[in-house]
Design goal:
Blueprint lengths: L11 H4 L13 E2 L11 H11 L13 H11 L6 E4 L1 H13 L5 E6 L4 H8 L3 E6 L8 H10 L4 E5 L11 H10 L3 E5 L3 H4 L13 E6 L11 E4 L2 H10 L7 H12 L1 H23 L4 E3 L6 E6 L3 H10 L2 E2 L1 E2 L9 E5 L3 H15 L1
Parallel strand pairs: 1-11, 3-4, 3-5, 5-6, 6-7
Antiparallel strand pairs: 2-8, 7-8, 9-10, 10-13, 12-13
Helix pairs in contact: 2-10, 3-10, 4-5, 6-7, 12-13
Length: 356
């Protein structure tokens, strides 16, 4: 029998990390993960299932994801040689760090923002430079660029719209960043379908710009499909570190059908955007709640009461939101995904009761 001290073998950079943790409930409504609350339409689901019937599960998937890339290319007008498919955009974030950073190099991102930038970077032995957002959840580029260039940061990640604040940062300030930062600017447009705002047209003029997008927010969260848009020379470098067969056959088929039949998804997106307006208006009527404007499929809100108590009360009554109160800038804050009208009504009812 072998009995060794395994913790002595674990890297110190990993020991110091905290795993990305998400609460869950078996029953009730889940408004914590920024998913599409609607399942695929019957029309889209039939197309997907028809393809599944012809699928050879004993064969490896297409390593180049050709059909999916062609579907994305047709929809957004980007050549397929600029596209890389990821197992969610999380994999593409990691790949960018692998390609551009050696251990000890620096990456940067705003604070607060998507937690996986920091977790991934620290797990790879990279230094993290964060820059605080102002009271409007925005930043000024000029002083930031000076600091980033001085620290020799390799990549700056900008969530656009930002998670968890929900807003799109100033387009002018991002433009300054792209034009003056001496490294790679990654615009993480995971919530693009709800904001309609993008820097895609800027890619032809700036070869340091990378854009990431996700299908998780618009209906395929269970299949983990993201894609990156790069200058073609960078796409080649990303493919060198991409794991072979990183996108499975089922995900490729479903994502391809979704891209080729986007009208059915667009109706769901439009419904979510309508509910976003209604939910913001309803939250504004609650005196002890401050709801922040959102360009995404979620709303950040802050309560004047004990946020932890309200979060636990909601969860105990079958409504799960994301509790963000551990962050010093997000005291008593929670993030609620826009659900269906019925789910949003239930959330508002339980929130009012929790506050009372």
């Amino acid at each position: 029998m072998t009995e060794i001290n395994l913790m002595k073998l674990v890297c110190e950079k990993v020991k110091s990390l905290k795993a990305y943790h998400v609460e869950t409930v078996e029953e009730g409504i889940k408004l914590h993960a920024n998913e599409n609350p609607y399942p695929p339409s019957p029309e889209l689901l039939k197309k997907i299932l028809d393809r599944f019937e012809k699928l050879d599960l004993n064969r490896y998937p297409d390593p180049d994801c050709k059909a999916l890339k062609e579907g994305i290319s047709t929809r957004i007008g980007v050549p397929t040689n600029q596209l890389v498919i990821g197992n969610g955009s999380d994999e593409l974030i990691q790949s960018l760090m692998q390609v551009f950073c050696n251990e000890g190099d620096t990456i940067a991102f705003p604070d607060p923002t998507f937690a996986m930038y920091a977790i991934t970077a620290k797990g790879m032995g990279l230094n993290v430079h964060t820059f605080p957002l102002n009271d409007n959840w925005d930043f000024e580029a000029a002083p930031l660029i000076e600091k980033l260039n001085a620290s020799h940061a390799r990549i700056v990640f900008i969530s656009y719209p930002n998670n968890p604040t929900g807003n799109c940062f100033s387009r002018t300030e991002i433009q300054k960043l792209i034009e003056n930062f001496e490294g790679i600017v990654v615009l993480d447009e995971a919530y693009y379908d709800f904001s309609g705002q993008t820097f895609l047209s800027e890619m032809k003029d700036h070869n340091n710009l990378v854009i990431l997008r996700s299908l998780s927010k618009i209906g395929l969260a269970g299949l983990r499909v993201g894609y990156g848009i790069y200058p073609s020379s960078l796409a080649d470098e990303i493919n060198k570190v991409r794991l072979p067969y990183n996108s499975n056959s089922i995900s490729q088929i479903a994502a391809t059908e979704l891209m080729n039949n986007f009208d059915t998804v667009q109706k769901q997106i439009d419904s979510i955007k309508e509910e976003r307006i209604r939910l913001l208006n309803e939250l504004a009527k609650i005196k002890s709640i401050t709801a922040f404007p959102s360009d995404a499929n979620f709303i950040l809100f802050q309560t004047s009461q004990n946020g932890e108590n309200i979060f636990r009360n909601l969860m105990g009554n079958g409504v799960l939101v994301r509790n963000l109160g551990a962050h010093p800038r997000l005291t008593n804050c929670m993030r609620a995904t826009i659900g269906t009208k019925a789910e949003n009504d239930q959330f508002l009812d339980r929130l009012n009761k929790a506050i009372q």
